[in-house]
Amino acid sequence: MAYGKPADVRFNILGSLEGWHGDRRLKLGSPTQERVLVTLLLEPGRMIPVSRLVAAAWDDEPPQTAAHQVRKAVAALRTRIPGGAGLIATDGTGYRAVLADDQLDLHEFNRHTRLAREASAAGQLQVAVEELRAAVGLWRGPVLAGAGGPVLAAASAALEERHMAAAEQYHGLRLELGEAAELVGPLRELIASHPLREALRGQLMLALYRSGRQAEALEEFTRVRELLVEELGIDPGTELTRLYEAILRDGPEVAPRPAAVHPAPEPKPAEPPRTLPYDLPDFTGRQGELARIVAAGRTPGRGAARIVGVDGMGGSGKTALAVHTAHRLAEEYPDGQLFVDLRGFSPGEKPQEAGPVVDSLLRSLGVTDDRMPEGPERRLALWQRLCAGRRLLLVLDNAVDAAQIRPLLPAADSSGGCLVLLTSRIRMLDLDGAEWLSLELLSPADSFALLERTLGAERVAAEPQAAQRLVQLCGGLPLALRITAARLRNRPRWTLQYLVDRLADETRRLSELSAGQRSVEATLRLSYQAMEEPRRAAFRLLAEHPGSTLDVYSVAALLGGDVRTAEDTLEHLLDSHLLDQPEMGLYSFHDLVRTYALGLRGAEDDPLGAMRRLVSYYVRATEAACDALFPGRTRYAADSGQQAWPVPEFACGERALEWLRREHDALRAVTERAAAAGLHRDTVVLARNLMFYLNLLGRHEEFGAGARLAVASARALGDPLLLRVSLGNLGIAHWWLGAFQEGIDAAEEALAVDAGDPSTEAFCLDVLGLLHGAFGNFERARAHLEQGIALHRSLGAARMEAEALANLSSVLTWSGRHAQAAGHAARAVELNRRLGERGNEITSLTWLALAHLGLGEDERARVCLAQALELCDEGLRPGNVALVHAYWALLCQRRGREREAAEFAEQALELVSSRGTSVRQAAVGNVVGVVRRLQGDASGALELHRRAHQLASTVGYQIEAARALWGMGEAVGVLGDAEAAAGYRGAAEVLFEGMGVGSSGRGRLGVW
């Protein structure tokens, strides 16, 4: 799941599928991926089981691996779509699309039709027409342009029926409002696509008749009658027949309607008060918010004034939006538009009290001093009395709390003729009857547009990259953008890049974002100063948290309190718009707010103590997450002085993985800070726990960095046990990264450490065996691995035994001992299943399949690989998944399923090229090279084998170097160069002999 929804990601499904990230159209992948995505988008917010996604993805009989391919399609979509993990959530046995209303055209279609129904019911026909116009305008054709297959075609037909119902209502209302001639053309276009819809024919007949074209209207009836008889064998329905007869006799029921006349407004005072500030000529963005407030302003309140509140952080443009909206609505409120700055958050000023504000409002309504009642209560009563029966628009800007607002609200009135627009940095939940709208930050596209409008399009176009960076540094805050533009306008010799360079220094950024009396820092200071000191202290400490999101557990530890108090603090800061909430239970800083908070650090704060508490918490939390995700792993004690902070509950591995994904960046930063603070034992444990997760994701560079950090801390700590474990993990990192000799050195040093622990000794023997196997030293590799397996077995360490057995199976397979390899791999599969080790089970199934292939047992190999495919998740251990895909492609090719072979081969290459190490790239490239050659693409095969040979030779990966040479020989042989083919094969033979690989080891696995 994601922890933050990118507001500028949008999908259109009412026609061909479109995905947009801001102004950039997304590439959503294969037809299968598009069908899966559209199926989810058709029912946003609802769990769609994998079985239904399979049915939607294939027109005919789905392949055996259909469920796996759907999961793979979801994983690919999550990668292609910014924030995709949050937009496509795993939910039980299926998936669910998580979208805001403005992210999907289907949502907008539903909203417009709903508002049209409400407006029509209220007699506001013109409003209903506009809503229906917007709804119908969203329709671009059938779902997936009609290429979605039977399942999606059925859904498309249902949507088409709703579209036509909206279109018919739209044209019907326009006819009712007196339009006629202008409807003839659009109705003819619709009828051309839907010739059997009688309602449309009737509307066209009516429009023609009311345009003075009676003969054409009658001809239209004749035409549809003939069509219905010919196509369906029926006559027109009763309604259409009655309409025909009425037109024939010029009946009064079809007489032309007068053009729509809006009711005349009530007489206005000679000079109604208008105290609104000027409207910004360069107001940009906020179209959704603007439309929502305008719609509310045009809908009468139910016996009371309508109150719409806009809350948001300082500088987010609340006042600008309220004033702009008020100007748009001015004609709707002819009795006056009044603006009051309540100074709730104004520099150097106290919030205004109700009494003086009411005096000012009464004077605006024409009450002279000699008519002003004595005493605040009588003046309030007069204010209420004057509001009754009037249509007034009141903007109460910059409010501090509900108590300041309540006396100013117009009293209940049957006319409900007043609108109150309220802005505040705090959402006033205790202000009954108010409709609240939280103002988010501007999207990147709107931010860029605002910069263009305030600075000038030519100047922005001259430095587009610098402009984009300015937008990023301002973080979507309109005040920051306007200050930036003002500074640049004031200094015409400054380039945009020059200001970018100044803003890049975080310690100076807030001081740079000031112009005249306006300053981002001053705006934030007002919100900060409005809080009591305990909240201020918490705000300062929260900035020390290195995570992009905060949860109540980590914040409780950081602040040194309990979870409930932490949540109260976070919610208060959220209400004050000093924090954001990307999703329920998670909180985040705006970059500029964090910078401001970090600058507040004082002598009374204890950031080091807070960081120690946070390290302690993350040690406990990662231990719990790894226990859930990697059952059977060995724990090593962290700092004995740790406090038992409460941590999230991880009921299953999936919940733990979700948490680790979210906390990834925070964990890396906390581990580095723990090392810098000298918390060496905690550093080793944290780094090891993080490495478990990084290995799962295939992030081997980060894995190596964590291993080096752990080794350094273990050395500083002087703990031989932790040093041996850390050196062993460093050896694994070197294996993945192709630094085999460095890995052997690390593993041998680990074995030389006198730790007195047979478990870690066995682990290091495994690592040493794995590395010698990569070098082609198969006998030494086998000896080390067998020694390690015996130790694991004697200690009852089933998880480690299973890993070592799979590694031994790989060595035996490479050297041609397939029967022994199959036995060890089968035992590894059994142990991993018993432990619930899904990732390791994939690896052991893969080696079992290869052993069966070496024995000529293709069907048994196919069963093993099919089981591995079902377990695969492209987001986890991508290099191993790519290898499974590559061998599955090879099996499919040998069985004549060329299309499936090509698809899986391409997926394998895509996976390994984007997230695979050189070790996996070489192995996958060799297998896919064989597939390409068998498909008749010898040139493509040769290129893949050459690339694999280059990678394998560079790192000394002997078995893959030999297989690459043999593959090159086979490819150039097909291309007709017998001499070169013999040379490549001879070079491969030399390598095979050097490793002791006989003909059985070279056969089906080396040559195919």
Characterization of the model:
- The protein is mostly helical.
- Helix content is 63%, strand content 6%.
- The strands form five sheets. A five-stranded parallel beta sheet has the order 8-9-10-7-11, with helices on both faces. It has a three-stranded antiparallel beta sheet with strand order 1-2-3, with no helix packed on it.
- The longest helix is centred in the N-terminal third of the chain and has 28 residues, at 149-176.
- The protein is globular, with a radius of gyration of 35 Å.
- The two termini are 42 Å apart.
Morphology call? globular
What is the beta-strand fraction?
A: 5-15%
Rg, alpha carbons: 35 Å
Structural class: mainly alpha
Low-pLDDT segments, ≥5 res? 1-6, 261-270, 1004-1008
User: How many DSSP helices?
Assistant: 46
Strand order of the largest sheet: 8-9-10-7-11
Helix content: 55-70%
SSE blueprint:
Blueprint: E1 9-12, E2 18-21, E3 24-25, H1 31-42, E4 48-49, H2 50-57, H3 66-80, H4 84-87, E5 88-91, E6 94-97, H5 105-121, H6 125-137, H7 149-176, H8 181-193, H9 198-210, H10 214-232, H11 238-248, H12 287-297, E7 306-311, H13 318-329, E8 337-341, H14 354-364, H15 376-387, E9 393-399, H16 402-405, E10 419-424, E11 434-438, H17 444-455, H18 457-462, H19 464-474, H20 478-490, H21 496-504, H22 506-512, E12 514-515, E13 518-519, H23 520-529, H24 533-542, H25 552-559, H26 563-575, E14 580-583, E15 586-588, H27 591-598, H28 607-629, H29 653-676, H30 680-697, H31 700-717, H32 720-736, H33 740-752, H34 758-775, H35 778-795, H36 798-814, H37 818-835, H38 838-854, H39 858-871, H40 878-894, H41 898-915, H42 918-934, H43 938-955, H44 958-974, H45 978-995, H46 999-1007
Parallel strand pairs: 7-10, 7-11, 8-9, 9-10
Antiparallel strand pairs: 1-2, 2-3, 4-6, 5-6, 12-13, 14-15
